[in-house]
Amino acid sequence: MSQLQGIITRLKNLQEQAANGEPAQRFFEVNGERKCQVTFHPKTETYELEVYNEKEKPKKYQFDNIDMITIEIFDLIQ
Q1: If I label 46, which of 7, 10, 15, 30 is the partner at 20 to 30 A Cα–Cα?
Q2: Dist CA 71 CA 46 (whole Å)
Q3: φ, ψ (nearest 5 deg) of residue 65
Q4: What are the backbone angles phi and psi of residue 25, rounded to the nearest 5°?
Q5: What is the pTM of this model?
Q6: Which run of H or E residues covers position 46?
Q7: Are the C-beta atoms of residues 71 and 2 closer than 8 Å to each other?
Q8: Which residues on neighbouring strands pair with residue 34, listed in sequence order?
Q9: Residue 17's pLDDT is what?
Q10: What are the structural domain ranges in the chain?
C-alpha cells in the first residue's frame, strides 16, 4: 500500500470516529517526531491541519477536500 493510500485510510477512519458528532483527531509522526495533527469536524465536514515546526507556533489550515489534505500531509512526512 502506498503512503498516500495509507493517509487516505487514516483520514477516512477519522470520519468514521466522528460519526457521533464529536470532532476526531489523529497525529502524524516521522521517527517519533510529531509533524502534524488532523482534526475532522463532522458538523462542517472539514479537516483542520495543525502543522508543527520547531521554534514556531503551530499553524492551522482548513480543508474540505480529502485529496488536498492528503497531499499536504504527504509533503509534511516526506
Answers
A1: 30
A2: 15
A3: -130, 120
A4: -135, 160
A5: 0.92
A6: strand 46-51
A7: no
A8: 29
A9: 95
A10: 3-77
Element counts in the chain: helices (H) and strands (E): 2, 4
Asked whether the beta carbons of 35 and 3 are under 8 A apart, the reply is: no
Strand partners, 50: 37, 60
Alpha-carbon distance 67 to 29, whole Å? 19
C-alpha cell at 61: 489550515
Task: For 15-60, write each residue's pLDDT tens digit.
Answer: 999 998 999 999 999 999 999 999 999 999 999 999 999 899 999 9
Residue linked to cell 479537516: 47
* The CATH classification of domain 3-77, taken from the options 3.40.1000.10, 3.20.20.370, 3.30.720.20, 3.40.50.11810: 3.30.720.20
